């Protein structure tokens, strides 16, 4: 009897535990909800933190996380092996200080039902030298639309446009009300109205008629001996003949620091026209891009007139048709617009952030002399960081970025120049 009683008890217990395991397995098999991830520190977009922060995040799933699936990447490097992982947390402290600038973190994992999830975020190490200020270069005579949530507006009005002077005055008042900082600028038509320039930091109205009749070389020399001017090329078409095929001038290169690269062809898929920009750079001009139709971002220390004009003079600009795209580009820790003298190697540091997580960054092109694509970087992310070192390069060279996102969003940076003896 005792033997049969033992068999009966064993059978009951066996059925009980097997049914329990089957219920759990059934529960897992029906689970199609991925785990949740929560950033603890540094928080998303946190700025100005120490150079060796401890990165922490927690995760949870009702059926448990497969700890073998947990992967942590910092600036595209897999640091999982150096992280401390528990049932619901991960913690990582770098063994070396981060470089100043944007740091990108990605955490991916799956639960026991193989549901995958991932989270990307970024933070900034060190106090930045420059901030990104968003704004408009507004052609008052042709453009009545602008990005209202801007830090600055630079209002480019034509000196000779008497017909629309009343409307222009009203528009100027409107633009001034809807921005933190408004700066006036003067458009000057050149001989036979083929080309146009803009002067940003001087009232030259009484000299305009004289200037507009000069040949380009005489114009460059005349402006060179005037005040410490900041000027922009404003081509009226996509024709490479503009400004005499961008023939180089030492006088002109001292005062022309900008070019409006807005695409004038309404049928074109690209918002920016780069042929004339590339021609100017290949001919030796030191210029950076602006746009009178899309957004121009300026790297400046503060939001005031002097700082913004300093950013224009030193070519720290980039243009974009996506207000949420923030771009950081340095070589040897020098920002856009810099000229690097006699380097032994070039350390590139690039980060592109879509702050609203709306348009994934698909490609980053690094463009160099003669429109050569130095690097073609595949991204497919809202947050992108890329670093590399170039040991062989031409004595005179420049490098700028084209960032391509979903929904035809495009960003073009100012160059960084390299000059070696």
Structural class: alpha+beta
Q: Any idea what the CATH superfamily of the largest domain is called? A: Metal-dependent hydrolases
Beta strand count: 28
Overall radius of gyration: 29 Å
Largest sheet data: 15 strands, mixed
Number of helices: 8
Cα-to-Cα separation, first versus last residue: 103 Å
Low-confidence stretches: 160-166
Kindly report the CATH topology of the largest domain.
TIM Barrel
CATH architecture of the largest domain: Alpha-Beta Barrel
Mean pLDDT: 85
Question: In a nutshell, what does this entry contain?
Answer:
The chain is of the alpha+beta class. Helices cover 20% and strands 40% of the residues.
Question: How would you characterize this protein structure?
Answer:
Helices cover 20% and strands 40% of the residues. The protein has 8 helices and 28 strands. The longest helix has 28 residues, at 2-29. A hairpin with a 3-residue loop joins strand 6 and strand 7. It has 421 residues and is an alpha+beta fold. Mean pLDDT is 85; it is low at 160-166. The radius of gyration is 29 Å and the shape is elongated. It has a 15-stranded mixed β-sheet that branches. Strands 2-9-8-4-5 form a 5-stranded mixed β-sheet, with no helix packed on it. It folds into 3 domains: 36-125, Immunoglobulin-like (Sandwich); 129-321, TIM Barrel (Alpha-Beta Barrel), CATH 3.20.20; 326-421, Immunoglobulin-like (Sandwich), CATH 2.60.40.1930.
